[in-house]
From TrEMBL:
<protein>
    <recommendedName>
        <fullName>Sensor-like histidine kinase SenX3</fullName>
        <ecNumber>2.7.13.3</ecNumber>
    </recommendedName>
</protein>
<keyword id="KW-0902">Two-component regulatory system</keyword>
<dbReference type="GO" id="GO:0004673">
    <property type="term" value="F:protein histidine kinase activity"/>
</dbReference>
<dbReference type="GO" id="GO:0007234">
    <property type="term" value="P:osmosensory signaling via phosphorelay pathway"/>
</dbReference>
<dbReference type="InterPro" id="IPR036890">
    <property type="entry name" value="HATPase_C_sf"/>
</dbReference>
<keyword id="KW-0597">Phosphoprotein</keyword>
<keyword id="KW-0067">ATP-binding</keyword>
<feature type="domain" description="Histidine kinase">
    <location>
        <begin position="1"/>
        <end position="110"/>
    </location>
</feature>
<dbReference type="InterPro" id="IPR003594">
    <property type="entry name" value="HATPase_dom"/>
</dbReference>
<dbReference type="InterPro" id="IPR005467">
    <property type="entry name" value="His_kinase_dom"/>
</dbReference>
<keyword id="KW-0547">Nucleotide-binding</keyword>
<dbReference type="Pfam" id="PF02518">
    <property type="entry name" value="HATPase_c"/>
</dbReference>
<dbReference type="GO" id="GO:0005524">
    <property type="term" value="F:ATP binding"/>
</dbReference>
<dbReference type="InterPro" id="IPR050351">
    <property type="entry name" value="BphY/WalK/GraS-like"/>
</dbReference>
<dbReference type="GO" id="GO:0030295">
    <property type="term" value="F:protein kinase activator activity"/>
</dbReference>
<dbReference type="InterPro" id="IPR004358">
    <property type="entry name" value="Sig_transdc_His_kin-like_C"/>
</dbReference>
<dbReference type="GO" id="GO:0000156">
    <property type="term" value="F:phosphorelay response regulator activity"/>
</dbReference>
Length: 147
């Protein structure tokens, strides 16, 4: 289930990149506290308006400015539901420099105990979107723009 969250967030980061620009995605994981991990997915996409951060996880809610992009408004609602079921928290905020930063906080036991030097789950090897099949390394990916 946690892989689905990463697939949705990374797929959205690619999909909501302005046309003609490469997608830039930064992914990090760190031990937040002794009992929790924090995973961050940050992009340089079209972003979310400040007044929509509280509602962007509601089902069928799409951020203003996303009208020119495909989608149903369910992806972030699904992410929210999965994280809640793992007794965690997800939030969205502006990414310094543009785009959106999603921060997920999960109890360490939500995905099993791991040594403090390893993230709680593996990142997907690739993400498929309507724009590209994108291989990911552990920390970031740059996706060339579609012609």
């Amino acid at each position: 289930m946690l892989r689905q969250v990463l697939d949705n967030l990374i797929g959205n980061a690619i999909k909501y990149t302005p046309h003609g620009r490469p997608a830039r995605i930064e992914i990090s994981a760190r031990r937040h506290t002794v009992d929790a991990w924090q995973i961050t997915v940050a992009d340089r996409g079209i972003g979310i308006n400040d007044d929509e951060y509280d509602t962007v996880f509601d089902a069928f809610r799409r951020a203003r400015g996303s009208e020119g992009y495909s989608g149903t408004g369910l992806g972030l609602a699904i992410c929210h539901r999965i994280i809640e079921r793992h007794h965690g928290h997800i939030e969205a905020q502006a990414n310094p420099g543009g785009g959106t930063r999603f921060t997920i906080t999960l109890p360490a036991d939500a995905v099993g105990h791991r040594p403090t030097s390893s993230p709680p789950c593996a990142l997907p090897e690739a993400v498929s979107t309507d724009r590209a099949e994108v291989p990911l390394d552990r920390y970031s990916a740059i996706v060339p723009p579609t012609p």
